[in-house]
Design brief:
The protein has 135 residues and is mainly α. The chain has a domain of 92 residues. α3 packs antiparallel against α4.
């Protein structure tokens, strides 16, 4: 099996888990939570792209963001994704740590300016980065 196939399988498995979680929220009657969760990853991608292009973000923090994107794109993880919960948890922890470092360097205004998602998600990211809400 080639590297491209492994990456394809990893991406497909991640998308299935992600979609499954959204469907569980919908089935549980939590449509608003499902909608917010469904958009959270795309919103984070937009945030990363915007932060990488912002001159106010220090070069070291941009390198940290670029390294995070590369790590997430690689099929090899600290804990393999096929291990339930722990496989995804290591990625989430690394994302949280990098986001915290990058966002603390720019301040809450930078986050508010670049966050494309709903207010509830902004508050969650703000609590992660600053220990308080950005609203």
């Amino acid at each position: 099996m080639g590297t491209g196939q492994v990456i394809g399988i990893a991406v497909a498995a991640t998308l299935l888990i992600y979609a499954g979680f959204v469907l569980v929220l919908v089935a549980a009657g939590r449509r608003q939570d499902a909608r917010a969760f469904a958009g959270f990853i795309p919103d984070c991608i937009v945030l990363f792209r915007r932060l990488l292009g912002d001159a106010r973000v220090p070069r070291r923090r941009k390198l940290l963001l670029a390294a995070l994107v590369a790590y997430l794109a690689m099929p090899i993880d600290l804990v393999p994704d096929f291990i339930p919960v722990a496989g995804q948890l290591d990625d989430a922890i690394i994302v949280a740590l990098v986001l915290r470092a990058v966002l603390r360097s720019g301040g809450p205004e930078l986050l508010r300016e670049h966050w494309p998602g709903p207010e509830a998600s902004l508050r969650a990211i703000s609590r992660l980065a600053y220990g308080t809400t950005a609203g």
